[in-house]
Amino acid sequence: MNRRNFLKILACSTAMSSVGSTLFAKTIISEEDDYYTVDSLNKLGQDKPKDIFLDQKYHDSFYSVIKKLNLVQRHVGFGNYNILSFDEAVNTARWSNKIGSFSDEELEFMEYIFYYNPNIHGFYGERTCQNITDTIDKNNIVKIPYSGHYLFKDRSLDTYNNMIKDIGNSIILTSGVRSVMKQMKLFLDKLDRTNLNLSQASISLAPPAYSFHSSGDFDVGKKGFGYDNFTERFALTEEFSKMIKLTYVDIRYTINNKDGVRYEPWHVTVV
Ligand SMILES: [Zn+2]
Question: Which of 5, 127, 161, 215 has its CA 20 to 30 Å from the CA of residue 253?
Answer without folding.
Answer: 161
